[in-house]
């Protein structure tokens, strides 16, 4: 989800140091990036789950760890995002008490999910007065961040600039902020139809797709924080990408042109088996670190392509 119906809540200023320490500071600064549903649908039609890439007439491409770092400003090197999920209200209650010191009521929950309205009011019920409470309020072992479609849209706009709305300030980092509130200056763009995107992608020519959008001529190197730049050697790792129940493949061998290399014949597609289709619908009381232990081991032993 990338549409906001209310202005995003500002975090308490005293947690800024913890946001920086955990690597969430830059993503916390991203403003409202309005969704363009037709473009998302056109991209989804081009996605091939068996190769884990988008298929265009000019070649295969994908959102890489480099894109995650540059577009959202998130760290890309660390422990896998995994662990147990608990579906019962009692488990949610206990976890919230542990993390925040307060717990939702049953009316604040829907099934195994806590309503967003409860979280919006949470900051008014928490007093952050010492380092322990501050660190608890900025724990990094959360599952979701508001931004997957923001990542996809921004990736498409920088790789396919002829399909993008006019960006804003090019001096902002992370790059997603270039399209913050884009609809104010590009009002008609939101009404571009799926058929238009399909036709433009069908007619895509070599030179219209920007394979390396983060060169010196495209982004000032001084804008990239050292903490982000230090992980660049890992951006070309051929590894599983892990988020609790979800496993995706970082198919670098199929998108070598995105790293300035010559694209050879790729290896056979990586078969993720049942792990590729896991969803968190229904009761899911499971420790995914154990369920996906083989993928976790591959990430832990990650190498560079």
TrEMBL record:
PANTHER family per record: PROTEIN MAIN-LIKE 2 (PTHR46033), PROTEIN MAINTENANCE OF MERISTEMS-LIKE (PTHR46033:SF8)
First and last residue of the signal peptide: none
Domain Aminotransferase-like plant mobile per the UniProt entry, residue ranges: 23-121, 141-302
Name of the protein in question: Aminotransferase-like plant mobile domain-containing protein
Entries under InterPro entries matching the protein: AminoTfrase-like_pln_mobile, MAIN-like
GO biological process: meristem maintenance
